[in-house]
Design brief:
Helix content: 25-40%
Structural class: alpha/beta
Protein name: PLP-dependent aminotransferase family protein
CATH architecture of the largest domain: 3-Layer(aba) Sandwich
Keywords: Aminotransferase, DNA-binding, Pyridoxal phosphate, Transcription, Transcription regulation, Transferase
Shape: globular
CATH topology of the largest domain: Aspartate Aminotransferase, domain 2
Strand content: 5-15%
Distance between the termini: 54 Å
Strand order of the largest sheet: 4-11-10-9-8-5-6-7
GO molecular function: transaminase activity
Family: In the C-terminal section; belongs to the class-I pyridoxal-phosphate-dependent aminotransferase family.
Order of helices and strands: HHHEEEHHEHEHEEHEHEEEHHHEEHEEEH
Pfam families: Aminotran_1_2, GntR
CATH class of the largest domain: Alpha Beta
Radius of gyration: 23 Å
Largest sheet: 8 strands, mixed
Number of strands: 16
Length: about 475
Amino acid sequence: MTTGADFLQLDPAAAPPSGRASWLAARIHDAVLDGVVGVGDRLPPSRQLAAELGWSRGVVVEAYQRLTEQGLLTARSRAGTRVALVPAPLATPDAATPDAAPFTAAATTAPPAIDLGPGVPDLDRFPRAAWLRAEREVLTRSSVTALRYGDPAGDLGLRTALAGWLATHRGLRTTPEAVVIVSGVAQTLALTAHVLRRSGHRAIAVEDPGSRGARDELAYWGLRPVGVPVDDEGLRVDELEAGPARVVLTTPAHQYPTGVAMSPRRRTRLLGWAARTGGLVIEDDYDAEHRYDRTPTPALHPSAPESVLHTGSVSKALAPALRLGWAVVPAHLRAAFLEAKYASDICAPGLPQLVLERLIGNGAYDQHLRRARRHQRNRRDVLVAALNTAVAQVPGARISGVAAGLHLLVDLPGVDDVALARALLADGVVVDTLSRHRLAPGPGGLVLGYAARSPHQLRAAADAIARALAR
């Protein structure tokens, strides 16, 4: 069966002029989900549908391409564009993730119209087709041993692929033996906290402001977070040197939530502190792969591999639900770390590891990252332009952290950011507050994620922020 604009019940007048491709992709997605079109049904040629809608053909091509990348559609020269699968309906989340905004949809009777909670990629652009192809290859070619309990350190093939990928993209000089596959950075923190507690550590230095989720994770596993101020060069190492902790958690590539990249002189001083005291630096390589206006920030690990535990994940690159990450563990901690990993969950899920290994090996993972960066940069530009107008009325307001990442920070000195967030929630907009990520008191602000929202939603959110500030 072939569909058309009428059959899909498309009203081109309802589409926002600057977001037609997103609108069309969403309408086709909904039509498949509602059963209006089914698996195997053929969509109209892009030229035909564009003519029916009165739009340029490029808009339709972009919408089809997005749905093809998600695996919803297949496109072949003679067979045309057809529906490949029916997506599962999205469930409304019933709890916030560790770094999600505290004012979530669960606090209201209806889901918010726009959620700008940070740390979430555009899941509509998850490379479903590439993942499905790789998963089929894995299931076809792998032996039954792939279905058994695996190595606590993770699949050797994936660890080898990651060691090479980290060498190319982050400058790490490491081996597969040093890499441990974990269920995201959260598990790295949990396992490391357990190991440190058993070796006598009680305090851990954390950035202030810094990730509330990471801080809560460390505290849950028995370490006492000690705040170290952050300024425009990153972590204040002089304050670290004066404190009691001999372990520090830092996000040097893109500090959360300020977006600052640690300066070269701070990096040198931090590694000098670790060498002098026998200290440990836990390097959360947060958002290092998402950069737009600056050259890559080098990782700390290559300069001091026995003083730095490097960790990262695919949660922001692919999807948080995959629960796949890595830790590059110094040799003196490796046995205890693996013992804790085995006691925690025996091993990471096997099949997703094999799929990720294949995506790294065939270049699909890097291709997805390049596309995601272009997409996210456009979203960032839209939000920054809209916010420049929205916050112009606030003395001292500043938009920062825009050179990389999936979020930006709006500093709002003199503004009660909690009250502002509550006012925005009443207007259907979810935001995170800077004060929630502070240990010591400080100026307020908003931490705004932009990757998962359409340009139309981002402009609407900025308008809501302007109205709330005016009130």
